[in-house]
Design a protein that fits this description.
Radius of gyration: 24 Å
Number of domains: 2
Largest sheet: 5 strands, antiparallel
Order of helices and strands: EEEHEEHEHEEHEEHE
Number of strands: 11
CATH architecture of the largest domain: 2-Layer Sandwich
Structural class: alpha+beta
Strand order of the largest sheet: 2-3-6-4-5
CATH superfamily of the largest domain: Impact, N-terminal domain
Shape: rod-shaped
CATH class of the largest domain: Alpha Beta
Helix content: 25-40%
Amino acid sequence: MAERYPIPAAFHRVEETIRRSRFLTSLGHAPDQESARAFVAAVKAEFPDATHNCWAFNAGPPGDTAMVGANDDGEPGGTAGRPMLNVLLHSGVGEIAVVVTRWFGGTKLGTGGLVRAYGGMVNLGLESLPLRDMIVTRRLAVSIPYPSVTLFKRLVPDFEGEVAEETFSDVAGFTVELPEERTDDFAAAVTELTGGRAEIHEK
């Protein structure tokens, strides 16, 4: 089976005041470490007046620690970035970056209070974060006889596929993009549809 998991569908933001400090959580899609760091930099640049811009990201599949990062941005060590990352890694969401911006309100929260505040702000953002599926796709080049075209075009959506290109010469040629886990079944169906006359290879 191919990987299929939820990722952020859009930039998202939530805000809460905790013991007079204002906390703002910004979440976004981070398909790689470069985009995660760019996301963090953009939020920091937006709020240069903030006391802290603490951040964490997981730029891979849910729970995967191969492409992660976290930073306390001046808060006591281990009270912000790490708790935020822990929430992300247990959220079931992949390819995600988060920045929790804090404006200090004069009341110290203590280390336990900070851990709860930063972790809690990430949870709060995740609760209302719009999600979409990340699907690994493959492209197949398919050549079929003309009499099979109509049935072939009806078949493609059944396998969550889309026709990306069409060419017409002595045979009908199509480039089809579809979820990786559906490619073998799709190829078998096309072969059956055309009585074995289809030519199929990966692009």
